[in-house]
Structures are given as structure tokens and as C-alpha cells.
Design goal:
The chain is 48% helix and 13% strand. The chain is an alpha/beta fold. It has a three-stranded parallel β-sheet with strand order 1-2-3, covered by helices on one side.
């Protein structure tokens, strides 16, 4: 009986959005959802002194992978935006991460010589597809495909094209994550730690070296075993 009840309130893999959850009852509800495994969206409406935002961010720090979104639910357009990624958010990230790489490769081709190297920086997110990162994950997955296409097309010029897909690396961004979120991520990394920046740098150096002349069209994951 207890096992059945526990299963009934297991929200792992579910997404919970609680409107007005910056404090009070709403905050208590979203916190409980988070404790039961849900990925949470904390919502607040903007107020003149910024208290709602502050409280929402405080509530989110106790929740793994929580998102904080400002939205006045009385405004239909804001509600729509709260549930969906805007076209501009989608296009901006793809333009930088994918189109940017294409532009650089295209303009580099005329000046690269036989034995040249191209190394793209993708992400484990492009292989796994992280929650809330449709634009980022799609751009990095596209970069993996672009790497393979470019490797085929440039092979006749003896130019190699590869990609590095970092996992969780110890950077300013990762250090800003809540401690609980960090612990949860680390439980999924077999090596039990975040990577160092050097862990990404050295594979890039290797792929650019003459010792890697017969490696092309590959995506090398630097993730401590997070992706296998």
C-alpha cells in the first residue's frame, strides 16, 4: 500500500508549473512538487519593488533544475510566452552556434591548406537534449551533423573536421548553479566530478596536431562518462 502511494506521487520526469509561486501557498506547492521529483517552473508577476522576483528566485534555489519566469497570467500573450520559447530566442541561438560555425568554416576553406584542421565545440546537450534547451540542444546537434558533412567534403583536400562535446565543465556558469543541482548532476557523472577547462583544451590540441591526421568526422565526448 505504501509503495503504491509513493508511486502515485512520484513526479519524476514531469514538469510542474505553478502560477504565483514566488511565496505563500504557491511556493509551498511548487516546493513539494520539486521534492517529489518534478522539474519546476516558478512563476511571478512583476511588482514595483521587485519583491516577487526576489522571492521566486529564492524558492527556485531549493529546486533542482528550476526555471523562474515572469508572467502576468492575466495577459494571454505573456502566458503563451511563458509556455513556449520565442522565435527570436530560437533563431538567435541557432544563428550564433550553428550558422556562426558554418560561416567560419565556409570562409576558412579558401585559406586552409592540406593538413588543415577544423575543430568545432559542440555539447553533450546536442546528443541528449536537455530540458528547456530546445534552441541550444538543436544548435549543438546541428553542429555535430555539420561537422560530419564538412569532414566528407573537405577530406579530398586532406583537411580534417572534428567536434568536441563537453559535458559539465567547471566554469563560472556551472559554479553559479545551486549546490543541490550540482550534486544531482554529479551523481550522473561516473567519474564523480566536473571536468576542468583543460580537459577540453587538450583534446582540441590533439585533434589539431599531426598525430590526429587520420581522425575526421568524429565527435569526442569529454563528459566524465556522462554520455556513453
Amino acid at each position: 500500500m505504501l509503495g503504491t502511494m509513493k508511486d502515485a506521487f512520484d513526479f519524476s520526469g514531469k514538469v510542474a508549473l505553478v502560477t504565483g509561486s514566488s511565496r505563500g501557498i504557491g511556493a509551498a506547492i511548487i516546493t513539494t512538487f520539486g521534492a517529489l521529483g518534478a522539474r519546476c517552473v516558478v512563476n511571478y508577476v512583476s511588482d514595483p519593488d521587485g519583491r516577487n522576483k526576489t522571492d521566486a528566485e529564492r524558492a527556485a534555489t531549493a529546486l533542482p533544475e528550476a526555471r523562474v519566469i515572469e508572467c502576468n497570467v492575466g495577459n494571454p500573450e505573456q502566458v503563451s510566452a511563458m509556455k513556449k520559447m520565442t522565435i527570436d530566442e530560437w533563431e538567435t541561438v541557432l544563428r550564433v552556434n550553428l550558422s556562426g560555425a558554418f560561416n567560419c568554416i565556409r570562409l576558412a576553406i579558401p585559406i586552409l591548406r592540406p593538413g588543415g584542421r577544423i575543430v568545432n565545440i559542440s555539447s553533450v546537450s546536442g546528443q541528449l537534449g536537455f530540458f528547456g534547451q530546445a534552441n541550444y540542444s538543436a544548435s549543438k546537434a546541428g553542429l555535430m551533423a555539420l561537422t560530419k558533412v564538412a569532414a566528407r567534403e573537405l577530406a579530398r583536400h586532406n583537411i580534417t573536421v572534428n567536434a568536441i562535446a563537453p559535458g559539465f565543465i567547471d566554469t563560472e556558469m556551472s559554479r553559479s548553479m545551486p549546490e543541490e543541482v550540482t550534486r544531482q548532476f554529479l551523481t550522473q557523472v561516473p567519474l564523480g566530478r566536473f571536468g576542468e577547462v583543460e580537459d577540453v583544451v587538450f583534446p582540441v590540441l590533439f585533434l589539431c596536431s599531426r598525430n590526429a591526421g587520420y581522425i575526421t568526422g568524429q565527435v569526442i565526448h569529454v563528459s566524465g562518462g556522462f554520455y556513453m
